[in-house]
Design goal:
about 90 residues; about 25% helix; 2 helices; 4 strands
Length: about 90
């Protein structure tokens, strides 16, 4: 499942504008909820997306991570790398 979190606009290297949409995702397994992130980028007529499930069992912590992703306008192509880096730091 997923829930809208936030959106940002960025200017790409080619001068076009892209819209980034961030979602909080979650799935339940064995009575435990795992929260993750999804980023969708719309640019012109194209759509790219990436998601990382089950990052944490804390919805509050996941909100902090999503806030960081939004603030730094993380795109789908760098989402996995940034999440891995964040998990290494905690």
């Amino acid at each position: 499942m997923r829930e809208y979190f936030d959106a940002r606009s960025i200017r790409c290297d080619d001068g076009r504008t892209a819209e980034l949409i961030y979602y909080l995702t979650w799935e339940e397994a064995d009575g435990c909820i795992g929260y993750g992130a999804e980023v969708i980028m719309h640019r012109g007529g194209t759509r790219d997306s990436a998601s990382v499930p089950n990052i944490t069992t804390s919805k509050i912590r996941m909100g902090e991570i999503l806030t960081l992703l939004c603030r730094n306008t993380v795109t789908p192509c760098t989402l996995c790398e940034i999440i891995a880096e964040q998990m290494h730091n905690f």
